[in-house]
Each structure stands twice: as structure tokens, then as C-alpha cells.
Amino acid sequence: MSGIGPVEPAAPGSDPHPLAPVTEASAEGPAPETLTGRAGDPDSPGVYGRWAALPRRTRRIALALTGVVAAITVGCYLLLNQPAPSAPPPPPWPAQAVEVSYAGTTGLRGAADEGVFAFRIRVSAIRNTAVTVDNITQPYPALTLTTSPRTPITVRSGASRQLIVRISVRRCSGIPLGVELPPLDITLRNTRAIQDQTFLFGDAYANDLSTALRAHCSAHRSRVPHTP
């Protein structure tokens, strides 16, 4: 008769079938690919290997396209981020954009009897804007003034125009024969504003006007019959 006794525990280290260690799968997924190969696959070429394996023409085209894309990207960035252009400065005031000068007389000798005298003035647009002469007047009620050509007259930027100012004597009474600084009042206009400006031309214009008025009014008085 045979019997079964209690099973005795094996001695430490004497397990005839040891279990292989279990390797836990990485929670982060497969290892990243490197330049020289993929993790766990030493025979697989990496990024650099695949790039080197491409034909030279293909690599050149790829590099050229990469450069073009980079240039376009930088250009678009600069274009979108450049500051807005500042507004251009306003044009100068009309009176600051012209020079008006006296250029002498014309035909004074034969005009003494008629009482119509012609003077030449020159208008120059000296700034980067055209200027229009809207009107020219003088302050003496006994005189009238017209221009040739007639106003308005536009002077282009950088150009000059000569005008003939004709002054006619309406009556000799009330005329200051010794005019020291006879003014001309000129209305100027450009894209910024309209201005009324008084111009004084100095001794030359004053002397010519005074001489003309004296000649006409002296001849006129000499023809008036003397009343005893």
C-alpha cells in the first residue's frame, strides 16, 4: 500500500521552469526615427540616408523649391508687417509758392494822351505746385486795371508767365502823382488755399507809374481852357 505525503516546497533557485521576464510595452510608442536609421531596425536607412539616396537633380529641385518658399514667406511677412506709408505733406500756401517781380514798362511814350499805361510783371511758380492768378487789382479809385491775358491765369510748377498790367486813368483828380510804393493786390490759388496778397515792387515800378501819371495829367490840365 502506498500513500501520498505532503508536497515539500522546492528550494530557492531550484524552479525547473523559471518564467521569462515580461517586458512592458512602452506607453510612448515606437522610438523615433533618427538620421542614421530607425530604432530597432539597424538595416533601415534614416532620413539622411534616404536623402542621400535621392538623385542629385531631385535634391537640387527640392532645395530650390525650399529656397523659393522661404523667400516668399519672408517677403509676405515683410509686406504684411511694414508700416503704413505716411501721408504726404500738404502743398505750400499760394503766397509761399510764387515770386512776382516787376519787368518794366511797354509803350509808355504813345500812351500819355490816352491815359492807358502798360506794365509787365512776371509770375513764377517756385515750389512743387501750380499756382493760379485769380485776379489783380490796385487800390486807387481814379484808376482802373486790366490784364493781358485776362485772369485767371495758371502757372505750372517750375514755370513763369509774363502778364501785361494796363492801368487806365479815369480822372486826374484824386491821383497821388508822387506814388512812393504803389501796391498790386493779387489773389492766388492752389490746391491748398486761396489767398489775397499785396505785392510792392520797389522804386522801379513806383517811378514808372508816377512818371506816366504826371505826363498824362499835366497834358490833360494844359488842354483845359483857363477860366478868368
Automatic annotation (TrEMBL):
- Tell me which domain of life the UniProt entry assigns to the organism this sequence originates from: Bacteria
Using the UniProt annotation, give all residue ranges assigned to the region (Disordered): 1-48
Q: What is this protein called?
A: Tat pathway signal sequence domain protein
Source organism:
Streptomyces coffeae
